Amino acid sequence: MSSKITECELEQRLLAVAEERRHGFLQTLQQLDAALATALQQLPADEWPDYSPLSAWPQLQPQLNALKQVDAALCQWRLGLYGLCSDCEAELTPEQLLQDPCRQRCDPCEQKHNKAQHVSWQL
């Protein structure tokens, strides 16, 4: 690895992003439904996106998707697969991961994914 970015720095950045997204989500939910926010805090954070009472709040969907991305990245970290493209398994650069710790795809695969998503939106 030619970069001076260490594995520890990447892990710390990923954990910071996870904490930031979870905290932001709880703040938003607290404003919408304080009781639901309190109930959610009793669950492990990786279960939050699948908590069915949250479906009553469709405006939370973008934040829930961000939480799912964080959970996927943390799971990849634990499995030793962090930093690999989820489609072609190419290594992502430390710089890419430092910029976006939840990044799942290399540039070519991301472009293919976005193009496929765009096509499905048109159907």
Largest sheet: none
CATH top level class name? Mainly Alpha
Name given to the CATH architecture = Up-down Bundle
CATH topology-level fold name? Four Helix Bundle (Hemerythrin (Met), subunit A)
Number of strands: 0
Q: CATH superfamily name?
A: DksA, coiled-coil domain
**Estimated structural class:** mainly alpha
Strand content: under 5%
Number of helices: 5
Number of domains: 1
Question: Which spans of ≥5 residues are poorly predicted at pLDDT below 50?
Answer: none
Question: SSE string, helix = H, strand = E?
Answer: HHHHH
Name the helicity range: 55-70%
List the helices and strands and how they pair.
Layout: H1 7-32, H2 34-40, H3 61-79, H4 94-99, H5 107-122
How would you characterize the overall build of this protein?
This protein has one domain (7-122): DksA, coiled-coil domain (Four Helix Bundle (Hemerythrin (Met), subunit A)). The termini are far apart. The mean pLDDT is 92. The longest helix is centred in the first third of the chain and has 26 residues, at 7-32. The chain is globular and about 45 Å long. The chain has five helices and no strands. By secondary structure, the protein is an all-alpha fold.
